[in-house]
Each structure stands twice: as C-alpha cells, then as structure tokens.
C-alpha cells in the first residue's frame, strides 16, 4: 500500500502568540515550530497501516524552507521518503492554495491512500484534505477514528457529534482526514533520527500560477472588558431587578 | 543534515519522549523513593543512552555535544537524568581501555539495554575524593582477584547488571607514585551480590538510588580486569571531562526548567493588584539567573566542541560544570523565592528540583575541587590541598 501523509508545520503551543505588524498573522520569526498534532496522528496511522499491509509511507509538506524540520521528524519516526513543496508564499496560506501545491506535487505518484490531519492547530479550516481529494479526483472521508483495509477498499469509522460514530466503506484510492487520538503516537528514536539522514527528500516548486483564494483582513484577540452595574432601590426591588437582568439580559437563569 | 539540524531534531525528539513522563510521574517516584524504571526503559529502547557507543558496536557514534543535549532535555522537562546518565558514559572506560573481546562482548548489549552498566565504585567512606588513598584491595590469586573493602555513595547499583570497580592491586607503600597501583574491574553484579558483595541503600535528601557496598572475599575473574593492572587511576581521569560536560548540561537543563517556571509564575501570580513579576525585586533575580544559565551554557558548548574535536578540554569542562552548577542553584533559589510558600508545596515540584539540583554543588565533584583544579593547573598556583 502506497500511502502519502500530508503534514503541516505550526508554531509550538508554548510560543506566546502576538499579532504581527500586518495585523493578519502572528509574530513567528523566532518561533519554534512543531508538527501539527492531528497530522502526527495521520502519520502514525500511515506507519501502522504499512506495518500491517506492507508498502511505503511518503511524507509531504508545503511551506517555506523551515518545514524541512517536520519532514525530518516524520522520517525519523519511520516515513520512507519525503516530498517537500518549498515556497515562502505557503507560510500562512489558505487551504485551497496548500491543497493545490500538494496536489501538483503528489498527483503523478498514484498513491493508494492519502492521509491528512483533520485540521490545523493554527488556522483550523479543516479544508486542506477535502480540497486535496477533490483536486486528485478521489473520494474522501473526514474525522476518521479507525481505518480497516478490506478487499480493494477501506472501511473507516467517522466520529459524529454527541458521541456517535459511523462506519463507511469506500473504494481506494481515497483520502482520509484523521482525528487526534485515533492511535498512540510513537516517538522518534535516536536510530530513527540517524536513519532519517539517509532518506530521500524531493524538493519541488509549487505551480507558477498559485494564488490565494482568500485574504485575511484582520487577526485580533477579543478585548477583555469588565462592566459593573449597580442596581439601586430597596433590597426587595433590587433583588427582583437582579433576577430580571440575569434572566432576560445575561440569560444565565 | 547539519549539526544544528541534528541538535534541533534531538531536542524535539527527547522533549517529546519526556512529555510522556510528566511532573506527577517524577513526584510520585520521589515520594516512594522508587527508580524511574519505565522512563529509563523508554529512553534506552529509543537508543538515546547508546548515543556515545560507536555504530559498529550497536550505538549511534555521536559526540559529547549530542549526548549532553539528551541529558539537558531530560532535566529541562522536569525529570532527573541522574537516574540513567551513567549508562551513557561509564561504558567509555570499557570502550577506551577494554580489550577487543570485552568491547565486542559487552558494548552491543549495553547499547541495546540488555545490560546496564551504570554504577562506578570509586569513593570510600574514609578517603572521599582523595582517591589514591583508597583501602579496597584486589589481590590476585591465580585466575581471579579477591576483593575486600568498602565503597560509599555508589549510585544505581541496584539498577545495574554490571559495575566498574576501582581497587588497589598494589599497596600504597609499594608504589613509586601514589597514583600507581590502582586497577579497574568489571563486576558482574548478578553473580557478585550475595557472593562476596553486599549492597545497602542509603536514604538521602533526593531520590538517587545511592548505596554503600561491601566486599568480603569477592572473586573477580582476571579477564574482567579492564586495561593494564596498576593503570586504573589514569583510566579514571580519562573519563572525567566527559562526565563534567554532561553534568554541566544537566544543570543547564535544570536552570532552564526553573527559569521557565519562575517566569510563568511571576507573570500569572497577581498580588496587590499586579503580577508579582512586575516588581523588580522578583523580576531582576529571575533575569540575572537566566543570564548566568545562558553564560554557563556557552562554556558547556565550548567544552563539548573541544572534547569532540579531540582537543584538551580539562579547564573548560571543569569551568562549565562549576558555572552550570552555580547557575542552576541560583535559578533554583530564585524560583523558590518567586513561588513564596508554594515553592515548598510538593505539588509544584519546585522543592523536588531544588533538592535535586543542589547535588551538583557536591557531586560528582565538589565546587571547591574545581577551583583547586583551576588554581593549580590553569593559573599555575601552588597546590592548595
């Protein structure tokens, strides 16, 4: 089974988030980065499928040169080789743009299965995988909590709202967006880190006509405000008014 | 892959492994005085403790710089690398001075973790750091040595399969120089304990699995002697620079852990209507401790670079250990002060790390002996002791 796993590099959770001068993104120039968490689960699922069914795991990432770090991490954990789409324009790109860059890079490889994380920890559109499936002309299923390989196809378990699940069968090739917690992540071993040095990383450019599909107008943190209102009158009147305000205005009772 | 990429990858990977062993894991072990068996197994299985073993003997053949990053990250995560750091470097004596047969037999098993070699019996109750005065004797009788004596502060003996032992093979009165006549032996603890060797745990201020060991006619086969008879003191010195640099890195890790905690607490804790970190009395000591940790880190990197290049680094390795131990202790004190009463509460882990990092003022070498080394060997001053 030939599996592609698309991973995104995001700012680490420990990095203090501050809006940058353009007011459209966070200051990330000196930030430390890590693999997007749902993507780490997608990678782990790909490695497990390979261990069960044989084949190859190819890790793909699109972004500026710094994404080489998450590529190395994926190779250290056990991916066999990598494809990296390099462009500074992909640093904080929208899902459509990232999906177009990835589709162009992996289309010719004819993967049996493409995995992505459900969504990214920074922008959280949950769209890259879905758009990528459309561009590749293959079916997709989202929020996957279990993957079974059946004859010529897949049985996958989707997470619904309210603790419900749904089993779906689909043909392959297919794309799945993986939910965090689907498996137990392995960590990179020292042997894995050393072995990653020798693995192939193919660096490609994105299509020349790549352009954003939307524009971020403003990024901001909602201002915290405190408002104090004094209810006057006799205790009985004030209590009555308080109940009315809590019920009708604050809507908490 | 460049060196700095390798270092980033190592940090990321070790940090992630350590994140599976949170503060509560170490806190509970501390309360029970238990060994971090699960953590050490994870670190071993992932190959990190075999970083310094050559590739053809099952390790990764990396340098002290990389090994020091591994230990730094363990301490920086709130853990205590002292539980297993010796597995990384004690094998160095075997690697450098062991016979080809010993290297081939033991090192691949140490690399895989099948055998643990993380105890080194040197210190004795009456002689301390005055190593050449040691009383433990190994007397050759045919194809084995018979060992009698006593060692103290020998850590991790109960969690090792093998132990290196330094004993006198020629009495002090019969050697020309007092540094002669000491030999190194590889003791198979699985056979020795109960057959001439007794281990007695020492309850201590920190959870360090330290023990006293007693030798009563312990027989050690001649083939378990490491290197030449009588050359043990030289072999001992050979391993010290590596140990100094690795300990310095652990201190840097501790220092960074403390400063991160202190800064966070000082930002979040609001008293008298403002974060306590807004007060210079709180902010400046944290800033100063940070400066000192970063400065110590530079000396540690300098020492590691010299070591890995094969250049002399005795002065730098000792200075790195002194600076880093002082910096981590300063950071520990500052953090205790920043936390106020909560620093004493076990659930905040500050008091545990405070106790743990205090050790490095004393072990593996006391701060005074580093100053004596610098005075005598770097500044050419008269020997002070």
Question: Could you please describe the fold and organization of this structure?
Answer:
The complex is a heterodimer of chains A (253) and B (385). Chain A is α/β, with parallel strands linked by helices. Chain A has helices at residues 37-53, 68-77, 95-106, 128-136, 190-196, 235-249; strands spanning 2-6, 9-11, 33-35, 56-63, 81-86, 113-117, 140-150, 153-159, 165-171, 174-178, 201-204. In chain A, strand 8 and strand 9 form a beta hairpin. The termini of chain A are far apart. In chain B, helix 10 packs antiparallel against helix 11 (280-308). The mean pLDDT of chain B is 96. Chain B has helices at 3-19, 23-32, 37-45, 64-76, 85-89, 91-97, 100-112, 189-192, 232-238, 240-268, 280-308, 314-339, 350-358, 367-378; strands at residues 117-121, 137-141, 144-155, 162-168, 182-188, 197-201, 210-221, 225-226, 270-271, 274-275. Chain B has a 4-stranded mixed beta sheet. In chain B, strand 9 and strand 10 (274-275) form a beta hairpin. Chain A binds chain B through residues 34, 68-69, 72-73, 76, 187-194, 196-197, and chain B through 1, 5-6, 8-10, 12-13, 16-17, 20, 45-48, 50-51, 60, 62.
Offer a quick outline of the entry.
The complex is a heterodimer of chains A (253) and B (385). Chain A is 28% helix and 25% strand.
Question: Any key phrases for this structure?
Answer:
heterodimer, A: 253 residues, alpha/beta, Rossmann fold, nine-stranded mixed sheet, B: 385 residues, alpha+beta, Butyryl-Coa Dehydrogenase, subunit A, domain 1, Butyryl-CoA Dehydrogenase, subunit A, domain 2, Butyryl-CoA Dehydrogenase, subunit A, domain 3, four-stranded antiparallel sheet, 14 helices
